[in-house]
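QA checklist item 7 of 12: single-chain prediction sanity check.
[x] sequence parsed
[x] length recorded as 294
[x] structure emitted
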Amino acid sequence: MGRFIPDHFVLDNAQIQPAHGSFSYMDQPLSLLFTLTAKNASGGTTKNYAGTQLAKLDATNQALWPSTILGTNGSFALGAKNGSTNLSTRFEATANPTGSWTAGVANVHIRVRFARLPLGPDGPYDALDIGVAPQDTDGVTLKSAALDLDAEGAGGAERHKLGQTRLRFGRLSSPMLMARSFCRSPFPPASSIGTACIGCSTRSMTAARRRASEQEQWHRQPSLLPQQSAAFLPNHGQLPRRRLTASELRRRRGKVDRLQRRQRRLYRPEVDLSAKPWLRSKWSGFASDWNEDP
């Protein structure tokens, strides 16, 4: 006599828990929770579907969650779409989920993140539907009537929708930025959501110092009498230029250095966002991607 298997699964009590109440940042973990129950053909719970020997769908295995294994025996195939855009491949589990089988029931909890694009902001996604398609190693899955999410856009629902959430491309905000006139301020538009305030970054000051060295080597210098100053000369901008001497360059660079030291005293130091990478941005204006600490 062969082993008895369930007829189908039933998924209920689904919840999406965003990181910030109503939304999450891209790359920031959010929680998915649901209850999965093994059912027989009569609709009763298959209580022997339990443990690791008789239950053939290990919800705690992180390898069973990628969207790319949809329809494979032994998978959950996490999927997502916003409107008509399939975003399934940008979701991934951040750690092994919880949800062992007891008497035919598994209460599943998984932390997932939506991958942030390194080359710049996208979104926002205000109507992001998330779903799963559980299928054990014997091929037991949800009934077709329970499938209500067509993330693949193939013309038919292939997943059960867990719910809908909102996602944002995050960065630190700087609503009270006070940068010197020679500081580049490459901050993204204020429309993006931020959580902290900082001043002009020291990387911008370093860039300013380099520009001072490279761009201020030439200076318009009139021939002045000892008692005269440039303020008394008409059309000062049309005066001939001469190359600055080494000592003059040193004095100018020293002025920038003094401003840089003052900058470090007046403004906050660089912020380490290694624990919150979803708030990184393109702070210096010279980076190739949006993955810098301010």
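[x] summary fact logged: Residues 8-168 form a domain with the Immunoglobulin-like fold (CATH 2.60.40).
[ ] second reviewer sign-off
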